[in-house]
Specification:
heterodimer; A: 7 helices; B: alpha/beta; 2 domains; four-stranded antiparallel beta sheet; 12 helices; 20% strand
C-alpha cells in the first residue's frame, strides 16, 4: 500500500513539475521501471533533490545538472524516437496534417 | 533431407525481392519467395508496435565486430522486410552519383548510367505511387500523385537553401489503390492509416498470385554451388522448427539486405571479389537550429515535405561529401537540452512547459544525409559464433565516418549560419552520427572490374544462375535515400529474368 501511495505521489509530483498529463507521466515511469538498471531509486531521488529550491543554494550546479539530465533522458527514453511526444507535449492545436486521422484516434 | 524443386527462388520479400517476384509473376513465371520473417499484418504491427513476430527465425543474427565502432542496425525480418518500417522518402539519385569516379575522382562509377536506369525509375515511381513534382534536379522524374504542399518550416527555408524541392515520397497525397491519403500523423514507421506504401499494402496481390509461393519463417542457410560448373544447384533452408530442406531452382535471386545478402554468400563459400566489403550507410547528422523567428514545427501535410540540395552537388565532391538536407516537420525532439537547462534554472510547471515549447517553436529540425566513400574497412564477415540454428552470425565492422564526410559536414555547419541569418540563428546543436543504420548498401557491388561481385545486370560474376537485388549491389552511395533506386534496379532485374529463356 505504501509503495502504491509513493508511486502515486511521484507521478503527481512529476506531472506538476513537467506540466504533463498524469496518465502520460505514469506511462513514462512504467517504461522507465521496465528498463530499471538498479539505479532507479537513486536517479529519482537525485532528481527530486536537484529540483528543490533549497538545492539551488546548497548543491553545486554541476551535480544538479548531472542529476537532472540523467533523469530527464531516462524518463523519456521510451519515446525518444516517437515524434508524437513532441507534438503532445507542445499541446499543439494541430497534429501534423489537417485531415482527420481515424486510425490514430482508434488506437 | 527433403528436396523441393522450383523455377526461380527469391530470397527476401522486401522491395528488392517482391518487385522481382512481381515482374516474374506478370510474365507467368512461377516464383518461390523465401522469407525468414513472418507475415505480420499491418493492424497487428500497429497494435504491438512491432514489425516482427516472436518466431525464432526473427532473431537478428548480426553482431558488432569488436575492432570497429558500435552501431545499431535497423532492418526487419518479416514479409515485406523493411518496407514495413520505412518512412517513405523516395528521391532519385542524381546523374552525377553514377559517375563519382569519372567526374570527381572519388569512389566508383556505376556500370550503368542514370539515363539507362531512367525508364526503371519511372516504373518504380508508378509502382510505389510516389507523390512529387517534376523538377530539373532529377531529370525525367514522373510522379503519379501531386506533391505534398510545403510546410511552414519548408516555406521559411526554401528561399535560404536553394535548390529546395518537394520531397518525393511514398506517403500518398490522395487515396490511391485502396490506401488512404497520408494523414500527417508523424508516426510513419507505424503508419496509423496504412497509407505509406509497403509491400503488404502495395504488392499484396503479388504475394497472393497463384504463381507466387511464399515460404515464410524459412531461413536461407546457404547456397550450394554445383560441383564443377558455374551454377548454384540449391538453397539449403531451415524452418522455424529446425527442419531442413533443399530448395532446388533454375535461378536464385538474393534479395535480402546488404548485411544478410553478403552473409549468405560468405557462409556458402561464395566469396568472389569484394564480397562483404564496402558496407555503406547513411550516418545522419541531426541539427537543431535554434532561431529567433518562430518556424512552425508540428505543422505540415506529412513527416517531411521538402528537401534542400544546397550542399548536394558540385565540383566540391572531389574533396568533401555532398549532403541532402530534409527538414523534419514534427520539429525537434522533446524533451531536449532546453528542458534540462530550464529545470536547472528553477522553472517548473506551466512556466517550464512555456519556455520549452517556445524554444521548440523557434527550432528548425534538419536531418542531414551525407555521402560516404566505400571502404573495405567497413565490412561484413562471419563470426565464429552461431545462432540457435547453427548458422554463423554476420559480424559487422564499421569505422568512424571518413574525413571526406566530416569535411562536408564541417563546411555546412560553417556556412549554415550565414544562409539562415534571416531567421536569426541563435545556436546550432548537432548530433553526428545519429540514428541507426537503415540504408544498408554496397557489400556485393555491381561492376566490371575484378573486385565487382555482380555484373551490370546484377548477375553474379562467377555463378551464372545467381543474381542479387537490393542495396548490396550499389557500387557507391549518394546523399539521397536509396529505396527508389533499389526498386528501380529490382524491376530492371525482374524484367531481365522474365525475358530469359529456360535453361
Amino acid at each position: 500500500m505504501w509503495r502504491a501511495f509513493a508511486r502515486g505521489a511521484l507521478e503527481r509530483r512529476l506531472a506538476r513539475l513537467f506540466d504533463m498529463d498524469v496518465e502520460l507521466t505514469r506511462e513514462l515511469l512504467a517504461g522507465g521501471r521496465r528498463r530499471d538498471d538498479g539505479r532507479l531509486a537513486l536517479r529519482v531521488a537525485a532528481f527530486l533533490i536537484a529540483t528543490t529550491r533549497l538545492s539551488r543554494l546548497l548543491v553545486p550546479r554541476r551535480a544538479r545538472e548531472r542529476a537532472i539530465r540523467s533523469f530527464v533522458w531516462w524518463l523519456f527514453e521510451s519515446y525518444l524516437y516517437d515524434s508524437r511526444l513532441a507534438v503532445a507535449y507542445a499541446r499543439h492545436e494541430h497534429r501534423l496534417g489537417a485531415p482527420a486521422c481515424e486510425g490514430l484516434r482508434a488506437q | 533431407m527433403t528436396r523441393k524443386v522450383v523455377d526461380t527462388a527469391v530470397i527476401g520479400s522486401g522491395f528488392a525481392g517482391a518487385l522481382v517476384a512481381r515482374e516474374l509473376a506478370r510474365a507467368g513465371r512461377p516464383v518461390t519467395v523465401v522469407e525468414r520473417g513472418s507475415l505480420v499484418p499491418w493492424k497487428e504491427q500497429l497494435h504491438r508496435r512491432r514489425w516482427e513476430s516472436d518466431s525464432p527465425t526473427c532473431a537478428h543474427n548480426h553482431e558488432d565486430d569488436p575492432t570497429g565502432v558500435p552501431r545499431g542496425w535497423q532492418y526487419v525480418y518479416g514479409v515485406g522486410g523493411s518496407s514495413n518500417a520505412w518512412v517513405g522518402n523516395t528521391p532519385r539519385l542524381l546523374p552525377e552519383d553514377f559517375e563519382l569516379q569519372s567526374r570527381h575522382g572519388i569512389a566508383r562509377d556505376w556500370p550503368i548510367s542514370y539515363d539507362e536506369l531512367d525508364p526503371y525509375y519511372v516504373k518504380a515511381e508508378a509502382a510505389l505511387t510516389i507523390a512529387g513534382r517534376a523538377n530539373g534536379i532529377m531529370p525525367g522524374a514522373r510522379y503519379p500523385l501531386p506533391p505534398h504542399p510545403f510546410s511552414p518550416m519548408d516555406e521559411a527555408l526554401a528561399p535560404l537553401l536553394p535548390p529546395f524541392v518537394p520531397m518525393p515520397q511514398a506517403r500518398p497525397t490522395l487515396a490511391v489503390n485502396g490506401r488512404a491519403a497520408c494523414c500527417g500523423a508523424a508516426d510513419c514507421t507505424f503508419c496509423p492509416e496504412d497509407a505509406r506504401y509497403t509491400v503488404l499494402n502495395g504488392l499484396g496481390d503479388v504475394l497472393a498470385d497463384p504463381g507466387v509461393e511464399l515460404l515464410d519463417e524459412t531461413i536461407a542457410a546457404r547456397l550450394v554451388p554445383r560441383g564443377s560448373d558455374s551454377r548454384v544447384a540449391a538453397l539449403e533452408c531451415v524452418r522455424a522448427d529446425g527442419e531442413r530442406f533443399m530448395l532446388e531452382a533454375d535461378r536464385f535471386v538474393v534479395a535480402a539486405n546488404a548485411i544478410e545478402s553478403a552473409g549468405l554468400l560468405l557462409r556458402s563459400g561464395i566469396d568472389h571479389g569484394d564480397t562483404g566489403l564496402n558496407l555503406l550507410d547513411h550516418t545522419y547528422a541531426y541539427l537543431d537550429v535554434r532561431t529567433r523567428t518562430p518556424v512552425g514545427p508540428g505543422r505540415g501535410a506529412s513527416w517531411s515535405t521538402g528537401a534542400s540540395y544546397a550542399y548536394y552537388s558540385g565540383e566540391f565532391r572531389s574533396h568533401r561529401a555532398g549532403l541532402l538536407i530534409t527538414p523534419r516537420n514534427v520539429g525537434s525532439r522533446l524533451p531536449n537540452e532546453t528542458t534540462v537547462q530550464a529545470l536547472l534554472e528553477g522553472r517548473r510547471g506551466a512556466a517550464l512547459r512555456r519556455e520549452v515549447v517556445d524554444d521548440w517553436e523557434r527550432t528548425v529540425k534538419l536531418v542531414v544525409a551525407p555521402d560516404e566513400l566505400p571502404s573495405p574497412a567497413n565490412r561484413v564477415t562471419l563470426s565464429p559464433r552461431s545462432d540457435r540454428f547453427g548458422i554463423p552470425l554476420n559480424r559487422v565492422r564499421v569505422i568512424e565516418p571518413s574525413d571526406y564526410q566530416q569535411r562536408g559536414l564541417r563546411h555546412m555547419l560553417d556556412d549554415l549560419p550565414r544562409r539562415l541569418a534571416p531567421l536569426g540563428v541563435r545556436e546550432i546543436r548537432t548530433v553526428h552520427p545519429a540514428g541507426e543504420g537503415a540504408h544498408l548498401l554496397g557489400t556485393l557491388r555491381m561492376g566490371t572490374d575484378d573486385g565487382a561481385v555482380v555484373d551490370p545486370d546484377s548477375r553474379h560474376r562467377r555463378y551464372e544462375n545467381l543474381f542479387v537485388s537490393g542495396g548490396a549491389v550499389f557500387p557507391s552511395m549518394s546523399p539521397a535515400h536509396p529505396t527508389l533506386t533499389i526498386a528501380a534496379l529490382a524491376i530492371r532485374l525482374g524484367e531481365t529474368l522474365a525475358a530469359l529463356r529456360d535453361d
